[in-house]
Fold this sequence. Notes:
By secondary structure, the protein is of the alpha/beta class. It has 19 helices and 16 strands. The chain has a 6-stranded parallel β-sheet with strand order 3-2-1-4-5-6, sandwiched between helices.
Amino acid sequence: MQIAVIGSGYVGLVAASGLAELGHNVVCVDNDLDKIATLNAGGMPIHEDYLQEVVSRRHGKTLTFTDSLPDAVAHAKIIVIAVGTPAGPDGEVDLSYVESAVREIARCATGHKLIVEKSTVPVYTSEWIRQILRSNSRRNCTFDVASNPEFLREGTAVTDFLYPDRIVVGVDSDSAARLLREMYTPLIDGSYSERPSAVPKPDAAPLPPLYIETSAKSAELIKHASNAFLAMKISFINAVANICEVVGADVDEVSQGIGSDSRIGAQFLRAGIGYGGACFPKDVAAFRAVARKCGVEFPLLENARRINEEQRARFIEKVRAALGELRGKRLGVLGLAFKGGTDDVRESPAIKIVDSLLSEGCRIRAYDPAAMGRAQQILGSRIDFAVDAYSAAKDADALLILTEWKEFASLDLDRIRRVLRRPIVLDGRNLYDPQGVTTAGLEYHSVGRPLPAGSPDAKPASVFTNGHAKSNGHVKTNGHAKSNGNGNANGYLNGNGHNGNGNGNGTGREKAREAGVRQTNPVRAE
Ligand SMILES: NC(=O)c1ccc[n+]([C@@H]2O[C@H](COP(=O)([O-])OP(=O)(O)OC[C@H]3O[C@@H](n4cnc5c(N)ncnc54)[C@H](O)[C@@H]3O)[C@@H](O)[C@H]2O)c1
C-alpha cells in the first residue's frame, strides 16, 4: 500500500520505517530541510535502537524521504500526520503544525485519501480536520479522517511500533476501518514477527497485539487519558516515596506490593525525580484544557503536575542536605536525556535539575551516552561535558544520577569512589541497591528508600506525634513533617534497624544486592 507520513521526528520517522518494514511503500516528508538531507545522506537525526538498521534496509526501495508534501501525497492512499503538537498558552494544544499540514494536503491532493492523525491531539480534532479539508480541498478529492494514536516510547520506539500492546484506530466509516486493518495486517496476524529479517520481539510484548476499533473521538481521548494516567501513576508513587522517606519504609518494597496487584500493575511505579519528555507534561496540560473546555473539573491532573515539579525541588534539597552550601560545589552528573535510551532532552528533569544547580552556583561536568549534543544546544558552555561516567565523577563533590541509562546501573563503584573528591552518590533514579553502594564505601542517597544500616548518616526514623510525622529527614513535607534541619539524610532507617531490604526474598536478590545493583521487576522500561 502507498503511504505518506508527514513529519520525520520521533514518531514520524519510526512510523514511516515501521510501515516500510511491514511491506508498504512509504514516503516520509518533513519541512525541515536539514533532517531530510541527513536522512537522504544515510544519517540518523535521532537515537533509537534498530532505527538505523531498519531505515538502511528500506531506504531508496520502499522508504523514501522528501521535503515536498505534494510529491509525498500524490500517490498515497493513506496520509499519516505525525507533526509536533506542542503546548500552547494555558496548556491547550498548539495545532498550528497540524493545521498547516492539513491545509497543504487539501491544496494538492486528488482522488480519495484517508487522513490518519497519529499526532497526539485533543478530542474533536478529527472533526476540525474534516472542516478544514472540506473548505480548502479541490473538487475532485474526497477524504476520510481517522485517529490512530501512537503509544511508542522513546528509547524502545521501534520495537514498540512493531510489537505494540495494542493498536487503537478511531474510525467513523467502514472504508477507513478496512484500510487501517490492511495497513496493520502483518502486526494484527503476527506474520511480521515470523519473517527472518524481523526486528526481534521483546519478551514481554504480546503477540498478536490487541486491535481496538473505536470512534475517532474515543481514540483521541484514549491517547490523552493514557498519558495522563501514566503521569499520575508516576506522581502517585513519588508522593508515596516521600512518605517512605519520612517513616523509613522502602518505596521499592511498597511498589512491588502495590504493583503485584493485577488491577494496578507494576509499570510506572518507580520512584525518582519525576517525568519529563515531549509528551507527558504537555499531554497532562492538554487533557486538563480539554476537561476545562468540557466543563469537567479534573484536579487530579493538576496535582500530578504539581507533585512532579516538587519532586525535582526535593531532589535538589537532598543534594543540599548531603553537601551543605551548594555554591562552588563541583558535581558530576550522569544523564541529561529525559529518560534512558533516547537523546531527547525536551522537558528533561535532568536538564531542569542541572539548570537549578547552576543557578545555585554549582559547577557541573556531565555525561550522557546519547544526549550531550542536544543538551549542549540548551546549556551551551555553562557546563562541561565528559567522555564517560568516570570522567564526569572525577574530583567531584558528589555524583548525581539523573537518567536511567542501563550503563549507569553497572558502574564500577570502587572506581567511582576513587575518582570522586567526596564519596557521595545521589541517585535520582534508584538504579542501585543502597546496601551494595554503601558497602563499596560510598555515601548513597536515593528516592524513598532507607539509608542502609551502618551508613554514616543513618539515624532513627521519624515517629508520629499528635498525628503528625516528626522526622529527622532533611526534606520538609508541607509543614506536617518536622525537620531537625541538620542537613543529613535521616529519616530513612526505621527504629529497629531494619534496612528495608532484608526480607529474605531469595538468594538471587541477595546476590544482586551484594553487587550493588537494583533488583527490578521484569517490567518494560517507562
Ligand atoms: N515523541 C514521542 O515519544 C511520542 C509518542 C507518541 C506520540 N507522540 C506525538 O506524536 C507527535 C509528533 O511527536 P514527535 O516527538 O515525533 O515530534 P518531533 O518534533 O520530533 O517531530 C515532528 C516533525 O514534524 C515536522 N513538521 C512539522 N510541520 C510539518 C509540515 N507541515 N510538513 C512536514 N513536516 C512537518 C517537524 O519538522 C518535525 O521533524 C506529537 O503530537 C507527539 O505528542 C510523540
